[in-house]
């Protein structure tokens, strides 16, 4: 398995975990008769908002990592070019 297949597998398990938690939450809210409907709605909205927040946190951390990697690649290419220019100038 290459890295792309590993990522797909991890994403699949995470997605399955999120779906399972939503299903279990829905069942527990449906089966709890002593909790008023307004409280159940509040809990449901809170869980959805928490999910959205977590997705945004992960996205922003991933974007920050990508930008750091991109900056490092640019710096490495610049350093490589400087070394190449220095070596060709010394040889001439």
Automatic annotation (TrEMBL):
Listed transmembrane segments: 9-30, 42-62
Alphabetized UniProt keyword annotations: Membrane, Transmembrane, Transmembrane helix
Protein's UniProt name: YiaA/B two helix domain protein
């Amino acid at each position: 398995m290459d890295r792309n297949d590993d990522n797909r597998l991890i994403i699949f398990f995470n997605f399955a975990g999120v779906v399972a938690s939503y299903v279990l939450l829905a069942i527990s809210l449906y089966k709890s008769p002593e909790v008023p409907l307004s409280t159940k709605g509040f809990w449901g909205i809170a869980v959805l908002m928490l999910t959205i927040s977590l997705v945004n946190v992960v996205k922003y951390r991933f974007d920050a990592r990508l930008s750091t990697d991109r900056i490092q690649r640019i710096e490495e290419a610049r350093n490589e070019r400087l070394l190449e220019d220095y070596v060709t100038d010394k040889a001439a």
